Amino acid sequence: MRGTLAWVGLAARLVTGGVWIVAGGLKITEPDASIAAVRAYQLLPSSVAEVVGIALPAVELVVGLALVLGVFARGAAVVSAVLFAAFIVGIASVWARGIEIDCGCFGGGGAKAGAASAYPWEIARDVALLAASLLVAFLRRTRLSLHSLLFTSGPDDRATVTEGAVH
Amino acid sequence: MSSNSKAKARADKAAAERAAQAQRESRRRIFTIVGVLGVMVLIVGGSILVSVLNKEEVKAVGAGSSDYGVTIGDPDAPHSVIVYEDFLCPFCGQLESATRADFEKLAADGKVFVEYRPFDLLSQSFGDYPIRAASAFALVLEKSGPEVAKKFHDLLYENQPSEEAPDSVSDDDLVDLAVEAGATEADVREGIESVSHKDWVTAATAEADKAGIQGTPTVLLDGEVYQDGRTIQDLAKNLVAELE
């Protein structure tokens, strides 16, 4: 059971991490669109929207890399979960206010006619990714993580121990 | 030396080795954590740098000096406002209705010089209404002058179609609005029906693109992009307050 969960955790890491890398990567070179996308939600004051529009893609990329590689995966998963929760609130909020925008999730963004029809699916997608993030956050170990390579004692240490015992 | 104390020495040595080992482990751990965090900070910093370098600055020609706009007020007024807009864009319509009366009053009082620069942002997504409307605007500007063109501009926003049904405003409707604004039907009907000023729209759009305009409405106050406000209504209110 534990073993299976560790593999499921790996899958969750790869899927959410992959989504973040794509989402962040597409936006990093398009800062103006990214800022406009944040602004279109009409939730944040203009200067804050600008900071978020620039910083969010960078954070998305790093969270994605951390999840895919499996370094500080649990911390990254917590950040990932918080971000997805925020996006769900954001989309629900524009939906409730009758604002029709492209969510700007993977670049683009801004006003878009008929966008409301996509909101339920976008929220469902983010809920699924939120669940996957929470799973990674709760698991102590997942398969194939760089973390286990970095943080288990390397061969050098073991060699020293053996020498010490011989003396 | 008794075998007892020998055993004790051995045990002490082993304990010391274990302690040293534990210390090495924890030092290695700290180095690894710092290293990984360092790499993460570098990636975040690098990404932000890439974003900032890719940001386009808006550098538009001064109010009143574009060939593709209509102005109200005195060019020597203490403030200038430039509004880049698309006749189909709903936020432009909101900005229009939130600012028109104030802008007209402030312009009449000599407090602001306003230039409206319509161009085509949305035809790729929503069909040719933005081109038809902007072309009709250019035609009216040419045939009937800036005052009628401004009035026509206002009427276009008052009768703005939705992005879902941009063609609900037909060429006949455009002619009617132009006439209502004060144009002569004989001057504009043919031109509106043949989209006579398509090239003007293309050139206006190229100018907006060159100025780094990324979306509509883009408002410039004294040459700087003005976006102080969470919603269009906020922005309009703050902008008018700055001008008063």
- Give the strand order of the largest sheet of chain A, numbering strands 1, 2, ... along the chain: 1-2
Number of domains of chain A: 1
The biggest sheet of chain A amounts to: 2 strands, antiparallel
- The end-to-end span of chain A amounts to 44 Å
The count of DSSP E runs of length 2 or more, i.e. the number of strands of chain A, is 2
Strand order of the largest sheet of chain B: 1-3-2-4-5
Our Rg estimate of chain B from Cα atoms comes to: 32 Å
Uncertain stretches of chain A: 154-167
Radius of gyration of chain A: 20 Å
Q: What number of domains of chain B?
A: 2
- CATH homologous superfamily assignment of the largest domain in chain B: Glutaredoxin
The number of helical runs of chain A is 7
The pLDDT mean of chain B sits at 92
Mean pLDDT, all residues of chain A: 86
- Largest interface by residue count? A-B, 42 and 38 residues
Distance between the termini of chain B: 99 Å
Which features does this protein show?
heterodimer; A: 167 residues; mainly alpha; two-stranded antiparallel sheet; 7 helices; 2 strands; B: 244 residues; alpha+beta; Glutaredoxin
Structure description:
The complex is a heterodimer of chains A (167) and B (244). Chain A contains seven helices and two strands; from the N terminus they run ααααββααα. By secondary structure, chain A is mainly alpha-helical. Chain A has a two-stranded antiparallel ribbon with strand order 1-2. The longest helix of chain A is centred in the N-terminal third of the chain and has 27 residues. Chain A starts with a helix and ends with a helix. Chain B has two domains: 55 residues; 174 residues, Glutaredoxin. Chain B is built from eight helices and five strands. A five-stranded mixed β-sheet of chain B has the order 1-3-2-4-5, sandwiched between helices. Chain B is elongated. The chains are: A mainly alpha (167), B alpha+beta (244). The interface between A and B is large, with 42 and 38 residues.
